[in-house]
Amino acid sequence: MKKINKFVIIYFLCALPIIAFMVFSEISEKLNEMAKTEGWADWVNSALGFSMGFWMLSAIYLGVALIGSSAFREELVRRLVRIKERDEREVAIAGAAAKKVFFSTIAIISFLLVLTLFQINVSRLPEGKIINGKKHVLSLGLKFSPWDKEFKEPAPESERFGYRFPLSTSAVLLGILLWQLGTFHWYSRKVGSVND
């Protein structure tokens, strides 16, 4: 399993600049046009499509592995962040830093959640609805909807399949907030029961 994880990580990181170049340069559209007349462009376009598909699969695999395997998650994050835990003092420092990061992340996510709930609207009133000479109206409100209202299924004649993440920004932030709080409490209890 370690060899598979290592291969997927290496491929994911090595292919990332190529994928970013493809996305930002819109090269695939140019290759689609060239593929109609040039055979090599069709081959290059197919190879780039295959590598992007495999990169997407590796991203999904890494996401599932990071969520599902605590040993893999700990090893990868430890390498990315360069945490060294050689003795008890360094373990205590890492624990204190994790606590500070956890609290600051909860604060930032809570702030972003509140911002996504606010609705502020300044509008100009039509000529017939002017009140005491005031031509503008300010309306304030709060709105939470777990689903994105603009989400529409693709029309059958235009697309065969389409997907867009249907959750709203507020729902995603709320989910992340609940996930962090829940996992923190769960791990705290787990570590506490082991130490007792």
Which term fits the overall shape?
A: flat
Termini, distance in Å? 33 Å
Largest sheet: 2 strands, antiparallel
For the CA atoms, what is the radius of gyration? 25 Å
Low-confidence stretches: 154-163
Number of helices: 6
Total E-strand runs: 2
Mean pLDDT: 76
Q: What is the total number of structural domains?
A: 2
Order of the strands making up the biggest sheet: 1-2
Order of helices and strands: HHHHHEEH
Strand content: 5-15%
Structural class: mainly alpha
Q: Which percent range fits the helix content?
A: 55-70%
Question: How would you characterize the overall build of this protein?
Answer:
This protein has 196 residues and is mainly α. It folds into 2 domains: 82 residues; 83 residues, no CATH class. Helices cover 67% and strands 7% of the residues. α2 packs antiparallel against α3, α3 crosses α4 and α5 runs antiparallel to α6. 2% of the residues are buried.
